[in-house]
Model the fold of this input.
Amino acid sequence: MSTIAATHVGASHGHEEATGWKKYLWSLDHKIIGIQYLFTSLFFLLLGGGLALLMRWQLAFPSTQVMANGDVGNPIALPFINPQFYNALFTMHATVMVFLVVMPLLIGAFGNYLIPLKIGAGDMAFPLINELSYWFFVASGFIMLAGFFVAGGAAAGGWTSYAPLSSVAAYNGTKMGQTLWAAGIFVNGLASIMGAFNYITTIVNMRAPGLGFFRLPLTVWALFITAFLLLLAVPVLSAAGAMLILDLNFGTSFFNPAQGGQPLLWQHLFWFFGHPEVYIMILPAMGMASDVLSIFSRKPVFGYKAMVFAMIAIGFLGFIVWGHHMFVSGMNLVLSAAFGVSTMVIAVPSAIKTFNWLGTLWGGSIHFTTAMLNALAFVAMFVIGGFSGIFMASTPVNIFVHHTYFIVAHFHYVLFGGSIFAIFASIYTWYPKMFGRMLDETLGKIHFALTFVFFNLCFFPMHNVGLGGMMRRIADPTAYEHLRSLQPINQFITFAAIGLGFSQLLFFWNFFRSLKHGQPAGKNPWHATTLEWTVDSPPGHGNFATTPKVYRGAYDYSVPGHPRDYIMQNEPDAPDAPAIKPLTAKVPVG
Amino acid sequence: MSLLALLSTARAEVRQTSVWWLPRNVNMFGHEIDFIFYLILWLTGVTAVAVFSVMIYFLVKYRARPGVPAIHSHGNNALEVIWTTIPVFIFLALAIYGNEQWTQMRLRTPPADALPVAVVGEQFGWNVRYPGPDGKLAKMVASKVGKDNPFGVDPADPDGMDDFTTYNDIVFPLNRPVRLYLSSKDVIHAFYVPEFRLYQDMVPGRVYDFVWLKAEATGNFQLACNQLCGQGHYKMFGKLAVVEESAYQAWVKSKAPAPTANVEKTETVPVSLVKK
Done:
């Protein structure tokens, strides 16, 4: 490294490579930060999954069930899951999965790792803020989880924490846990905001010469749009969290009607964040899945610009649909009409993206790698999750299926079926770049098959129990006469969930084993075109020995007449072709 | 999903409300909701089958084979326009139609002879108030709803003198419109009866007076709270029966009027459910 230190772009980002413990705990290198995010959120994934399995066990074999003779109904029930703890389980499962798993995996891990590499930059614009953002994220996780160890237990008001249940200690009985939840959300929000403006600054200012916006890979576009959503939506949630802390501890009354507050204020603030959040958790997945589909179909992304505009449309519309979460609160009819229409309209860009993914497959030369299988599962599961969303967008149907297991099925199809499968696809694609070794394909395919089957066995029947009238967030469905006949399905779902959970151990085995024993990856194992594949795996500090020059878009696969079926973005048309005039984008020097 | 629909018809007799499918509907308004539900189910079902068929066809046909290169194509603008325009029209039509139905449901004024019933949620049970022989309920004021006055009524209100109250116990007469007055004493609860296709949040500080229904069949149902309301949420249910008019009248006669705002409580509120 030292011989090229004088010229490498790393010189421009103002820090040297960290060594020793500092390399992994306080590194300013975006790649290390991305990997820190990856490991931390995979740890939280195990934890959040564990919470889900406890929940499922209680639903199948409720400890609260009492037989006619007064005995506890289930000898295999877990006695420590009382109703309050059950409420804490689903509250924290959702909180962990949303704020500590899906967001940090997509945005923290892949955003940090891929953005500078894909745009030909040496690092992020603000490396120190980047590392601070990571540690704020870690802190937020510990603050939220600390709730399990304080008096009253963890927050138990649902991840939506509707006031006044959340804001009045006498109603929730978890004053400390709820306060920690809100504080965790606040700190997590700071981490997101720091990350967001860093990404925007980096993408706007630090693209390599020749890399115009419409030559960016869709992954970068998706993260760019996501960063704007974060920047505009997250501060609102942070403010709401601060108000919740004040209400709980300092005698204010923003949300309690008994003292002149307004419960619907919380809902508006929460969902003004909460709905863009839905797209924050799916847009990067869409971007990365698009790239994976393109690589393994050996084809350019179909309708690249339509894909970009569809994501921009989702970003805009995502801010005017939040009211559909509140149809059931007794909303004014003009307002519900507006929210109903905007909610239906936001389905259009999602449809466009789906058609373009199919178009990408059309005429391709499809390689069924583990990464590709996961990306295909992403498309298929996203279609199902999108379709079940249409039921919710229709106001009259919404009032029937709202808060039933139908909606639980819906958002798991989008979040697990969509985002998590895209995350698996991305890990299989970029792990070789991150660690210099390949993941095991056989293990990967077994893991994929088990995950895909158990996922559907687990979540599809939830549509049915939901339509059968099963409410979400109840600790014991057998307490209800109209749900007792659904109990066999609930037990079936639980067994599928256990299968799903344990299948993930294969992934973790593969992940950690391959760090040492995987096949060496080389620079470009997938024969992909983008800039990260032009450098070593893993790339050195500063990424690029010299600033790359970009001559083409991100998807020149199977160009007729070319000896290879891919042309790297930094390859000129011919060796002696005149240098393409750099675009106006500036690469900061010094 | 449509496969499961077929399954469900085969098993319909196992449970009066099929295990795999929608429970039976007994509310006048439920038919429209079920109609839109099935409309969307058919639309999405057919589209899903089409999308998955195309996808599987492509995956088989365009699997990598030696010597067969991929087609180099960046897309097709005409196709983009087509598959943007068609969904726009379908989704707009769905939105407008759904909204029209919703507006109809909400704006249709309850008939003058509708039976007024007040239901006020609390942690963790249902306060219910019925009118006496005069057929009138005392006026509810949202700001007065509180610990000692669950219905927010004026004790001197002449309309309320003959009202009677129950706890976790609701009876609706068959084929008679019922107008609900919903509110909450403490946190948000929700009035949910799947067989009525009815869900309404009850946000404290408000009285919801636009919900009405007409039961078209007799039977015993359960009223469930469907908005997380605390540790006893999962047990916050009440009996809800639809009976013939004569049986309803007999039930009313068995209830003594409660001239003050007090509530007859059949059980104490389960405050501590946490097992040590």
Summary: Residues 1-15, 259-276 of chain B have pLDDT under 50 and may be disordered.
